[in-house]
Amino acid sequence: MKFLHKYIRKFWLPFIFALFILMVEATIDLLLPTLMASMIDVGVATRNLDEVIKMGSTMVLLTSVGMVAAVLRNFLSSYVSQSFGTELRLDLFRKIQSFAFQTIDKFDRASLMVRLTNDVTQIQMFANGLMRIFVRAPLLCIGALIMAVRLNLHLSIVLAVVVPLIAILLILNMKLGFPRFINVQKAMDRVNGVMREYLSGVRVVKAFNQFQFEVNRFQHANGNLVEAAISSNRVLSVFGPMMVTVMNIGIVAVLWFGGYGVEQGHIKVGEIIAFTNYMIQILFSLRMISMVFTMYVRAKASAERINEVFVEDSLFESASIPSLNGENVFHVDEESRDEKRGPKGSIEFENVSFTYDEKRGEPVLKNITFSLRPGETVGILGSTGSGKTSLANLIPRFYDVSEGSVKVDGKDVRDYNLKELRNKIAIVPQKTMLFTGTIAENIRWGKENATFEEIKQAAMLAEADSFISASPEGYETKLGQGGVNLSGGQKQRISIARALVKQPDILILDDSTSAVDMATEAKIKASLKKYARDLTCVIISQRISSVIDADFILVLDNGKLVGIGSHEELLKNCQVYQDIYRSQTGKEVLL
Ligand code: M5T
Ligand code: MG
User: Fold this and answer.
1) Which of 311, 506, 510, 522 is the most exposed place for a label (fewest CB within 10 A)?
2) Count of H helices and E strands in the chain?
3) Is the domain of 512 the same as that of 571?
4) Full domain range(s) for residue 449
5) Do 300 and 381 reside in the same domain of the chain?
6) How does it sit in the membrane (predicted)?
7) Probe target for ligand 1 pocket from 354, 390, 513, 538, with the most ligand atoms within 8 Å of CB
């Protein structure tokens, strides 16, 4: 997986160093039982205190070296795995930011979340595990075998039986365990998914009294998880004790043969103790190895999922996304701002057709052609689902056209640097998005370095100042996630203020006053008119009253442009417009 190369290049040195320390630790682990054997057999058995002290202090010394090494290695491994995880997460985040909307639509949003959090953690844990046990376990296993054989060839016959048996059990354990582990992972994902969906729609669930339905859904997902977990734990709970039992029988055999040998006088007590110690080390390291394998399987699945994100094409270079150490932090390019003063902001649609999903036949927009001069205001009217939002999405290039071209200031949007293009345009989306933070911070999103005066000015234009100033904390009022503590109309007005503070050339209002009453809407439009003499405006609405005084109106019906002209012209010669007019005013069109 190519994305890992970068991190390998970056962290190989501390990684290798950690592996080196691991080798030192393993060597110490291997020496200790032998030292102990000699302490017992030479020192204790012959009551030679000097030998006991000599061996004892060597052991203490070695253990202390081992301790220092372990501390150092732990520092290293947590440093490497944490920095690796942090960087990977940031890189992944940047990559996702660089995606075109098409790509984001393709991934399920929840699955992107899991990739950013859980999947990164899995790989991080594996990296950490590698640096703690990777070399140590095989080294310890082979080393302990060699030391044991060297210690006593006769007793090693027991090992020749026990070790292959345990190895077989381990392999069986992995064979049966891995698929079950993967099932647990999948079931966990589903529980998360159900929970996330429930929480985001909790109001609707309550309003429709769908508790039982949701509980059943959750129970189902949860039940699957339990089954998967039990099944995987069963494997663990059978094989774990089995391995320990085999090893214990082996130890009993060693003690039995050994005891016999001691009686005969050709084996020493210390040897037996050291030997059993090595056996335990072998068992321990084999189980470690199986653990690393489990981690490996999980990390591999996660790495594959992350890789899927990295191999997607980026729509634009993400250089403008703030990096960890603060370089590249967003700033508004003052120069380009000044240079774009003057009447700019023309929009041209030439024979534009568009579909969200190439495979799903029927395009959402068909052969749309119109042009808008700088400073003009266009209204876009059409029933719900007629393609208004889709049309607006093409201007800041949220999506690419399927056919034809969209030009801003005479240049195809595909030829722009995206940052430059989007600097010209402010959009008030149909679905208001506010973020956790104060009202002032939310408005400042439009322009990083906006002064308080600019913010207040924008809020005044959007008719938001009155209600903001009326609240006790004013502009410092904290908003919950998504602005939960505001009404729909208040949210819309803050969202408009955020767009205005950007001082764009083109302003797109997508049904942005739908939740505001008629009187307030009229006020917003009046102040916009005053303020925005050379601002190009695209006003999307379902209400004729919102677009009636635009320079001209586009009428969309099922993705087709069925009328273009002023209110009066359309009343005369556009059937769809007449129908909408009749339904909204109750008046017949008098010709
Ligand atoms: C037009 C489809 C939608 C509809 C058609 C935004 C969006 C729309 N669609 C998608 O497949 N994916 C999307 O992300 O496009 O939809 P619209 O442009 O949103 O219509 P509208 O803005 O005129 O409607 P409304 O209700 O906002 O007034 O078929 O399935
Ligand atoms: Mg819409």
Assistant:
1) 311
2) 21, 12
3) yes
4) 347-585
5) no
6) Multi-pass membrane protein
7) 390
